[in-house]
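Sat 14:20. Reprocessing the chain from the morning session after the first attempt stalled halfway. Input below, unchanged.
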Amino acid sequence: MRAPGNWSLSIGRWGGLDIRVHAFFVAFAVATLYLCWPAPSSEPAGNLLNVALAGLGLLFLSVLVHELSHWLVAHLLGVSNSAIVLGPLGGYTRWSFPESSRAWLLILCAGPAANLLVSLFCLIGLFLVEGSFRVMPLLNPLEPAWVEAPTTLAAQGLRIATWINWFLFLVNLLPAFPFDGGGVVAAILNAARPKSISRRGSEFLFWVATLTAAVIMAVALYFWKHNDTALFPTWVALALLAVILLVAARRDFEVLVPPVVAGAEPGKGDLPRKRRQTWAPLPTDGLADALPSPDIEPSAAVSPAAPRRDADAEAEADAEADAEADAEAEADAEADAEAEEDQQVDTILARLHVQGWDSLTREERALLQRVSARYRHRLGRPS
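Finished this time. C-alpha cells:
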C-alpha cells in the first residue's frame, strides 16, 4: 500500500532503516479494542477481546512482512530505502525512484506476494494442527471465520494469520491508489507508453480508481440492505474503503491533470512552454504623409522651447526603452525558468504515480504546485 508518510511515529531503526507506525494504525487499534471490550455484565465476551489483541499483533507483523518485502527487493535491485511506515491496510516504503518499469513491478509485487506466501504457509500449518477444516469460509475476505470452534490456541492464531494475510493480499491487488495494484497499473502504463503516465495515463488511473470505488460501494449497499449485523458491519468497512479510493484518486487527479491538459499535444512528452509576446512590424505605407512637410518654415515647425522638450522626450524615450528591455529580459528569464521546471515535471509525475505524494521532496512538491497553479491561471480556473 502507498500510505501517507506524515503523522507517523518512529519505533526504531534496523540496519539504517527507519521503521515507523502511522497514526491510522493506532486509531484502528484503539477502535478495535473499544468495540471488543467486554461489558461489565458479560464475562464470556472476554474471549472476543483476546481475539482482537491477537489479531492486532498478527496484523502488525503481517504489515511489517509486507513492507520489509518491498524493502528487500528494492535493496537487491540497488534501489535505496530510508524508511517504512506501517498502516492498517499496508504501509509505505520510502525508496528512491527506480529507473526501469521492471524494477517498479518487482518492488510493488513483493509485498502482496509475501502476504500470499504467509497465508499459504499458515493454511499448511493449520492442516497439520487440525487435520481437516473448511477452507472457503476462512478465505472469505468479507466475513472472516476466525472462531469456528478452534481446537487449540495455535489453531486460533493460524486462522487469524491466514485471514489477515489473505485479506492484505487481496486489498493490495485493487487497481487503484493508495494500494500496490494502482502502482502496478502505473508501472505497466509507463512500460508500454513512457509518456502516457503523465498525460492520458493519469486520467486513465483516475477513472479506474473511480470505477473500483463504485463497485465497492455497490457491494457495501448490498450488505447494508441484507441487514449486516456484525460487530463492525461489513458495509461500513466497504464504504470507508471506497471513500479512501475516491479521495486518493481525486488528490492525484487535481495534482496531475491541470499541468497536463493545458495545451499539451497528445503523445508529446514535453509540457507546453510559455508563449512569448511577439510584435509584427508596422507597415511603412503612408509614413511620409505623417511626417512634417518640408515646405513648412523651420520657425513654424520648431518653437524656441523645442530643443529642451526634444531632449526631455529623448531622455524619457531612452528610459522607457531601458525599462522595456529590462522587462523583456525578466520575462525571458522567467520563461526559461518555467521551461526548465516543465522539463522536470514528467519525471516527478511518474514517481508520484507509483510511490505517492510523500515520496516527493519539499522542493518537488512546491514545483508541482507552482506548475499546477500556473496552468490553472492560464486556463482561467480558480487556484
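The first strand starts at residue 8 and ends at 14.
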